[in-house]
């Protein structure tokens, strides 16, 4: 009970954290959105929308000035901007029976080496942002599919579809590298 | 190694690769970006968003505090109540309240001033059923209690008292209840299915009267009509 009361009084205000994020990253977010939308007014809208999403998930951000938070902010504003273009969700469906593709023992054996990891990194860098962002939120930041749906304001099927396609693309790329 | 283990290991490696990609992306972003002059409308919208940030957390916190306080208070009250229920008088009162609320009882209340200066405690049966004789009489200032016995376990219990501000309850559960009038007097009869003890209750001459006995209704009415 005491802890809860202290949480009301002593915890660094979420509003302070939000204001710090705003001051530190607003220009970065604007230029990132501008690079996608090519329109200043739309870019401001995307930044405002992104801040709304950040405000709702402020408790998930611990340290403001770090590369992890920076990357998170970039993912949010990039996806918000892409969402405003509204071309990505059309036709993105995946069969209910399809699972994320399995990794074979043979591929895993090849990956567990310096050279193999290099190839994985190359495949990840070549992946489209719309897939790598979702995979990053899931595997680096630990968000569930439902969390990602809420965070990005994206249909759940779209999130599941991008996880599936992203992983499938990676595995196919890696199979291509190792066959060469 | 099974495929679940393979997938788990791949996911760990993928997480590391994605993290590297993120870090190289953000470190490649120019930290000296020119300051953009946002519109006034943008500033207003951001201020509105900023105001909502703390609100949610504080509401959740306050909600948790209230919930815990209420639960603690309810638990404490529950413990106190259970301890009180171990007291026979408290248990009986609670039982009575529950039964009243569930209509297991009829309640007879007589309020107001009877105008009587004194209470006549000399009344007795004018008609006593065969085999019965008075055995016990208990007096107090406002009521009389008499017990008639027939030598075996059967008893007739007669109680009467001043009606003013009196409250009489009769259990209905497992009994038939009947109200009827005879010779200008309204009787309330309760017939027992289980234990054979029937009750006749009425008001007359600023007094309440009650007879409990293993006798039929007509016999009880006959006793009532012959009280002197």
Quick recap of the structure?
The complex is a heterodimer of chains A (180) and B (228). Chain A has 9 helices and no strands. Chain A has 180 residues and is mostly helical.
Distinctive features:
heterodimer; A: 180 residues; mainly alpha; 9 helices; B: 228 residues; alpha+beta; 7-stranded antiparallel β-sheet; 28% strand; elongated
Please explain how this structure is put together:
The complex is a heterodimer of chains A (180) and B (228). With 180 residues, chain A is an all-alpha fold. Chain A has helices at 2-9, 14-37, 40-56, 67-85, 105-111, 114-126, 129-139, 145-152, 156-179. Chain B is of the alpha+beta class. In chain B, 42% of the residues lie in helices and 28% in strands. Chain B is built from four helices and nine strands. The longest helix of chain B has 46 residues, at 40-85. Classes of the chains: A mainly alpha (180), B alpha+beta (228). Chains A and B meet through helix 1, helix 2, helix 3, helix 4 and helix 5 of A and helix 1 and helix 2 of B.
């Amino acid at each position: 009970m005491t802890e809860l009361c202290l949480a009301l009084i002593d915890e660094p205000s979420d509003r302070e954290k939000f204001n710090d994020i705003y001051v530190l990253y607003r220009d970065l977010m604007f230029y990132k959105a501008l690079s996608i939308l090519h329109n200043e007014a739309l870019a401001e809208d995307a930044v405002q929308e992104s801040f709304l999403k950040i405000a709702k998930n402020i408790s998930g951000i611990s340290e403001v000035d770090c590369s992890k938070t920076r990357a998170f902010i970039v993912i949010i504003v990039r996806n918000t901007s892409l969402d405003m273009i509204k071309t990505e969700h059309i036709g993105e469906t995946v069969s209910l029976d399809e699972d994320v593709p399995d990794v074979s023992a043979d591929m895993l054996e090849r990956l567990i080496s310096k050279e193999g990891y290099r190839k994985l990194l190359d495949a990840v860098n070549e992946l489209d942002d719309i897939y790598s962002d979702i995979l990053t939120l899931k595997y680096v930041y630990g968000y569930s599919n439902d969390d990602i749906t809420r965070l990005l304001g994206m249909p759940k099927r779209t999130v599941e579809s991008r996880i599936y396609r992203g992983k499938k693309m990676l595995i196919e790329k890696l199979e291509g590298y190792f066959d060469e | 190694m099974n495929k679940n283990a393979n997938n788990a290991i791949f996911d760990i490696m993928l997480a590391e690769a994605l993290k590297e990609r993120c870090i190289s992306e953000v470190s490649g972003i120019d930290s000296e970006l020119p300051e953009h002059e946002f519109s006034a409308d943008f500033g207003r919208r951001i201020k509105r968003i900023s105001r909502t940030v703390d609100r949610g957390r504080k509401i959740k916190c306050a909600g948790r505090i209230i919930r815990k306080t209420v639960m603690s208070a309810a638990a404490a009250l529950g413990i106190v109540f259970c301890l009180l229920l171990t007291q026979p008088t408290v248990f009986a009162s609670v039982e009575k309240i529950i039964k009243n609320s569930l209509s297991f009882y009829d309640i007879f209340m007589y309020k107001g001033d009877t105008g009587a200066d004194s209470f006549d405690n000399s009344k007795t049966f004018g008609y006593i059923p065969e085999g019965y004789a008075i055995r016990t009489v208990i007096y107090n200032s406002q009521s009389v209690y008499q017990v008639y016995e027939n030598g075996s376990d059967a008893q007739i219990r007669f109680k009467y008292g001043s009606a003013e501000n009196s409250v009489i309850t009769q259990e209905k559960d497992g009994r038939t209840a009947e109200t009827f009038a005879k010779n200008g007097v309204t009787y309330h009869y309760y017939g027992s299915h289980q234990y054979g003890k029937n009750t006749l209750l009425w008001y007359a001459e600023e007094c309440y009267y009650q007879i409990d006995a293993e006798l039929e209704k007509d016999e009880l009415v006959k006793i009532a009509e012959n009280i002197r």
